[in-house]
Amino acid sequence: MRRIQPASSLTMPYSFLFRMLKDPRTTGALAPSSARLARELANLAKNSENVLELGAGTGAVTQALSRVVNEDKLQIVELQKKLAVSLKKRYPNLKVLHSTAHRALDNYRQSGSVAVVSSLPFRSLPPAIKHLTVQSLLAFLKSSPGSQLIQYTYGLSAPFTAPAGFKWQQIKWVFANFPPACIWVLTKSPDQ
Ligand SMILES: C[S@@+](CC[C@H](N)C(=O)[O-])C[C@H]1O[C@@H](n2cnc3c(N)ncnc32)[C@H](O)[C@@H]1O
């Protein structure tokens, strides 16, 4: 755990909005995650042995995670090269992958339970990418005992439909976020 260089709070919302306009389906939000939402996600993840963050974006959630998770236990993944490069500069001791989430999940090798903390915009992702990502997540949870997916969504229903053998739990709404977000946790059912 280390002291983090704060990202510019003035320029970040503008660059985020620019990215949203350029690539709305993969960005999936109008603003970076709030500090409150990021803290709630980090609190849910902190007792797992490892943490894998998907769709780290501008690093709002990474910042909260890096306060409660040892840096050798935290890996982060971001699809957009510019963002991945800037995250690596900001967090030189973290493993930062410029990759799709499904590839990162398929290649992830760490023993022990994993909290997968995701900002991926499942409601807007292109269908083929959404399908690949969901399949990789389900395979990962199946093969990794004690692991969980911690995901937020701006909608009223679960982030995506999970098949039999998996269970979504709605955790809480965070209103101090734009727009308000609901946190959900997906786990493998105990008897599977
Ligand atoms: C809602 S935004 C980021 C939110 C982030 N918590 C923040 O505050 O900046 C979602 C991020 O997921 C990334 N993303 C979208 N699809 C992805 C994929 N298939 N694999 C990895 N990252 C992806 C986007 O590039 C974007 O940065």
From TrEMBL:
Pfam families per the UniProt record, alphabetical:
RrnaAD
Any GO MF annotation of the entry: RNA binding
Question: Which keywords accompany this UniProt record?
Answer: Methyltransferase, RNA-binding, S-adenosyl-L-methionine, Transferase
Q: Does the keyword Protease apply?
A: no
Query: Please, one GO biological process term?
Result: methylation
What name is this protein filed under? Phospholipid N-methyltransferase
Gene source species: Albidiferax ferrireducens (strain ATCC BAA-621 / DSM 15236 / T118)
